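Example 4.3 (complexes with small molecules)
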Amino acid sequence: MYCGQVLDVENLSVDHVQPRMRGGDGSLGNVVTACRGCNTRKAGRPLWRFLADDAEARRNFFRLARYVHPRHLKAVAEELARQGVPIPESCPETP
Ligand SMILES: [Zn+2]
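Answer. The structure with zinc ion bound is encoded below.
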């Protein structure tokens, strides 16, 4: 997801867009796949923090996260906007 790589199933892990502790569930609209490298880089940071620090991950996230629930995408995009981070043009919230 974040680095745009196509991965073997055994190297994938799932990551929650909206953290469970903040009310996120495990449905398909709230999880993205991440390789171990990306998961390690992201560590325990909130998704928006990771995306704010990594421009490539940000581009890939908004390009690839088409099945993520729109309200979760919107929450991430709004948090990035609050931090002054530019949202990629392909973001579905800014057609
Ligand atoms: Zn990756």
